[in-house]
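call fold(seq) -> tokens
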Amino acid sequence: MLRPRRFKKSATPVSHAGSMLSLFKTRSVVDPALGELRRSSGAWRGHISVGGAPAVALVLPGNGNEPDPRAIEIVRELENSLPDWRAGIAAALLDHLEPYAAEADTGNFSHIKTPEDVWPHARLCHINVFEQSGVLTLELGYGVDWDEDHTLGARFQQGRLVELNGSTGPL
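ret:
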């Protein structure tokens, strides 16, 4: 009769470096300004708080070893750039509100008359950096009370607002 072989238990963790198991380990890097970024689904992901708002999803391009340094620099500059961009973002959000303002079932937003009036009804939801038409693009995703079905992406290229995309999300 064969007896089952008993293996001695070891308290020392087994290292899988160089084995197939190490291929599936999530890569991560820590940036002094952006915090921990983890490689997942072909991008570098983390969370960031901008302008005192709650932390939102951050998605950056890069290779398998590190995020794109240009993308990191764009996000690092965001805190300084955002005050200058606020008026342009608010104007674009107000333009987006116009067709919704007439609809009775979207709530009463008639009190929103100026771009600055949109801010109590808008919140930052995500920050993406990606290539669009060969140019590194920063997208600030905003949720707005008058359009609960979409997240609006304020897209910036080389420091300029180029469009407000009507349906976006973290990449």
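The chain is about 20% helix and 35% strand.
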